[in-house]
Amino acid sequence: xxxxxxxYNNGQFSKKSLEALSYAKALSDKVVALAINxxxxxxxxxxxxxxxxxxxxxxxxxxxxxxxxxLLLQVAQKEQVTTILLPSSANTRYxxxxxxxxxxxxxxxxxxxxxxxxxxxxxxxxxxAIAWVSLQAKQVITLAGNATEIKQAPVQAVVEAFTPELSxxxxxxxxxxxxxxxxxxEEASIVVSGGRGMQTPDNWHLxxxxxxxxxxxxxxxxxxxxxxxxxxxxxxxxxxKPLSCDLYIALGVSGAIQHIAGVNASKVKxxxxxxxxxxxxxxxxxxIVGDLFEIVPRLTEKIKQLHS
Length: 308
Fold this sequence. Notes:
- There is one protein chain.
- With 308 residues, the protein is of the alpha/beta class.
- It is 29% helix and 24% strand.
- The protein has 9 helices and 16 strands.
- A 7-stranded parallel β-sheet has the order 7-10-6-1-4-5-11, sandwiched between helices. The chain has a 5-stranded parallel β-sheet with strand order 13-12-14-15-16. A two-stranded antiparallel sheet has the order 2-3.
- Helix 3 (65-79) crosses helix 4.
């Protein structure tokens, strides 16, 4: 039996939650999905959950490790599961290791493949290498982002309400992060970022215009967020949010080693920079040497024409 923790934001389940369900369904026909303060749960049975536990609680409105670990431990005991599967997100990076310790299970993080001979692939060294690790009898697994194909597997699910026991000591809010993106970085298949080559925050509309044309999220480098041009929630890289999207476009990003390490898992990387010696050109799949202030508006206009 596999328990899948799902995340529900802005009226829908996250793309990575559906990835987790598809992965779980490939492992077992017995899949239980946990939905917290969610609306319509139809998507969960569309992607293979044969049982859906719905939890509604004001104490779970804001994410806290204590609250969510307590909930998952109670659900795991109730359903007698042997594997707890979590999607890749900022919250699960904090949640999963604590859950594994409290539950007494192995912790397998950044898993990027289905099992083969009892082992799975794990992304290591900032996505520079792959390791094979053995599955365990009792385990908490987090998936690498965009590593699993989402597949529909419709079933008639049993939907059951569950009320956890959460003490008052567990309801302290640990903090929330405000996002300015129209598209979440965690959920986006395309991300457009800017570096110091944007010169001033007044030029950031070029990043946003291209992102809007592509239906992408916007992001930035550490120096940009440190200077206050953009919020820290948009900082990507090894010291920020790791990225594993389908297409990453970097505008005016030279490519410090920490930044490249944090975005290296992205499938296709494109860089536009006026400096032909910028380190990012060595890591990118495609590169354009030129003035981004001339190139990006023309590129954005072309994309808009294609979509019109």
